[in-house]
Request: fold
Amino acid sequence: MRQVAVLGIGQTKVDEHWDKALKELVLEAAFAALQEAGIDRPDTLYVGNMLSPIVSGQNHLGTLAADWLGLRGIEAAKVEAACGSGAAAFRAGLMAVASGEADSALVIGAEKMSDRAGHDVTAALATAADADYEVDQGVSFVGLNALVMRRYMHEYGWKHVDFAPFSINAHANALHNPFARLHEAITLEKFEKSSMVATPINLLDASPTGDGAAAMILVPAERVYSLPGRRKIIVAGSASATDRLAIHSRSDPLWLTAAYASAQKAYQMAGISPAEVDVFELHDAFSIMTALSLEACGFAERGQGPRLGLEGATAIGGKIPVCTRGGLKARGHPVGATGMYQLVEVVQQLRGECGKTQVEGARIGLAQNIGGSGATILTHVLQAV
Amino acid sequence: MRQVAVLGIGQTKVDEHWDKALKELVLEAAFAALQEAGIDRPDTLYVGNMLSPIVSGQNHLGTLAADWLGLRGIEAAKVEAACGSGAAAFRAGLMAVASGEADSALVIGAEKMSDRAGHDVTAALATAADADYEVDQGVSFVGLNALVMRRYMHEYGWKHVDFAPFSINAHANALHNPFARLHEAITLEKFEKSSMVATPINLLDASPTGDGAAAMILVPAERVYSLPGRRKIIVAGSASATDRLAIHSRSDPLWLTAAYASAQKAYQMAGISPAEVDVFELHDAFSIMTALSLEACGFAERGQGPRLGLEGATAIGGKIPVCTRGGLKARGHPVGATGMYQLVEVVQQLRGECGKTQVEGARIGLAQNIGGSGATILTHVLQAV
Reply:
């Protein structure tokens, strides 16, 4: 398997894009990545997307993207793994280049959610759960996460306010990311007084959805070493793992087995330990997920995730900065696109392009994308070389 | 890129499976393939599926399949390329093994269409077309194919009845395939008197949809060479190409550019010419597509596809036998599963397991799967070694 590098990135602002179709978001992000890479025509194209068949009446999104990008003829497909679709598409592109089947891959994560009312989107998101045995019971994803968070607080003795630093950090970092959906600093007081969504999860524990697309060009690493200019970024580790789809089928609802498994495999492939990770873009769909991801990836003992937030370790300048561009919480969570946003943001960090939220000297970055309630988890290690 | 071989296959009958959920069809086909391969736990799993988000309210089908198969933990994702989803998933599995990322891949094509009324399914199938610029005009897939067929008949002087041999052959072959949906021989008279669907396409030009799943285990080729027993099948060629999504955007609606491009690439990879192909499982969603595929893949001159049917070349014993297990026309067309059925059927031919429709001495088989109206076309060459 040959080494793969990132040659270009692109992204749109995450927002309610009432004036743009899904395909226009795709084009904006993809053209930016192609232009930065100086590539007219990649060999293959993968789109990560979850909801377009339901929300936009659009399947066949890979070929639609190739068509509208003027790339008639190239290979194209869509990859779907619920909210893990973005990183799953990235991994497909990675294997296409690693296997030698393609010498360049355009990977795009794209989602348009604003075209439907909120309750329709909630129902569409529930298609990530087992339609026969979970969805029919009426539980939504925020409901499932609320059950997990309540159990976690009970088991380990944390109070709801102990999760506040995660959200405050995400909002603070998003202020400096022009592509983030929310540009609004929040305080501890605001966090505590925020509207309840599904107890104990309030509005500031939960990430906003949105419309957006993020893209990347992957090429064999040997092609970038000789290039002048910006730092070279290689994909040092990549792994995907699954768990039982339903939380009620797992022996322990408070441990992300698939996060642990995919992180261990990615670390091993990259030849690193968690201590060497400089920046971690994690999947903070809800604040409880930040704690669980930090624990499963080896940054905190079990049940001790919130401590990292309270001690400032997850802020810029801390031991393990997370959500440095706002995370799902404040950059926004356009579900099938999120995994690609995380990877693009890690590249920005490793290139040193993050201005006021730059992690100084960042050389190794981790991105972790989650589909469903921890059922599909993809972990990637990117490295500046 | 290392060579990849087929270690096991499985399939369900294509039918209206009122008593089985989508996941049960997945399990039936996958367990059969795993059992035949003698593998308990593959490294990765890809599901090709088009309609489950719309028809079954189910996304996240890769991980759902892994969960229900008892394969908790393994990598899993869904791949979608409209009716080309099956072969697109196969190609993802192929690259996972070829790249060295996985030492075994379970690939499944699965579709459940009977749970919705016919007009709902027609609308769901239309999501393969551009939602903004084709679907909104009200054209259905049979309507698009009818326009192409009429133009073809006009350009090249064929009569509707000249397409009859394709459908008669498919139905005749399906009689001997227990997994086929239709077990009913048809005559020329029956073909001519069949109900009109969208002129000139009548019911016997069109393939029936259905529910079904087909599966395959892929492993590095070095692993099969030393095995006793049945003939070894390797994936000798694999390619995917696209065209403009809408037929109205193409310079020539009567030429399958993506079929030509992907077939040429697959032939080159396998080091073969069309003359060496012993059996061809093509994508006869409508009889006109049989003609166009035969032409684009190098078996007939432009506009001369129907001649192969009329001369008996496409029947068992002919120069280029097609639809040897019934094709889409009579085996049935469970859309996202079809590509995997074709590949499974080619394996059966190369192993010599096809009884009365066995192509004697078949060593090289071609499978071609089409998404949309020729927009995404995947061509695979399998070879007995």
About this structure: Chain B has a mean pLDDT of 96. The first strand of chain B starts at residue 4 and ends at 11. Chain B touches chain A through 65 residues (CB under 8 Å).
